[in-house]
Amino acid sequence: MRILHRQRGIDLAPGVGANDKVILIDGVCKLCKAWSNFIIEHDSAHRFKLASVQSDQGQAILLHFNYPIDKFDTMLVIDGTKSLEKSAAFLQVMNTLGYPWKLLLITKLIPRPIRDWLYDRIALNRYALFGKYEYCVLPTPDHKERYLDGQ
């Protein structure tokens, strides 16, 4: 089942505006929690919103873009009507954050299949490498506005 949300004839994910940039993360992954804290710290212009893939909002976005809702192998970046995954998602975030993070775009010289293979090695082993929470970690009160629907 695909959930659609229309705004001025544009096929938007539920709760995502045409100009929104949303990062979907695994809410039980310790690496992903560190990544969300990095975004909160370095995205001082608040360009990104965060959403856990386990949340109702995250699940609706996954369905909208035809991703599985029970297995999470990649971070997704939603930019208006498009979704980016794996190394393309990571590089989009680095590009948006600006300097010095934008310097990581040099890795675009590596062919995408190789970048994605490297990304998958970390993503598929993230629980073994970094650990896992027993439950979806909620944002602290001072970070709540950085999440879709204050998750």
Task: Give an overview of the whole structure.
- This protein is α+β, with helices and mostly antiparallel strands and 151 residues long.
- The model is unreliable at 1-9 (pLDDT under 50).
- It contains five helices and six strands.
- The longest helix is centred in the first third of the chain and has 13 residues, at 30-42.
- The chain has helices at residues 30-42, 56-64, 86-97, 112-123, 126-130; strands at 5-7, 10-12, 21-25, 48-52, 76-79, 82-85.
- A hairpin with a 2-residue loop joins strand 1 (5-7) and strand 2.
- The chain has one domain (5-135): Glutaredoxin (3-Layer(aba) Sandwich), CATH 3.40.30.
- 26% of the residues are buried.
- Strands 4-3-5-6 form a four-stranded mixed β-sheet, sandwiched between helices. It has a two-stranded antiparallel sheet with strand order 1-2.
- The two termini are 24 Å apart.
- The radius of gyration is 15 Å and the shape is globular.
Comma- or semicolon-separated keywords:
four-stranded mixed sheet, globular, Glutaredoxin, two-stranded antiparallel sheet, alpha+beta
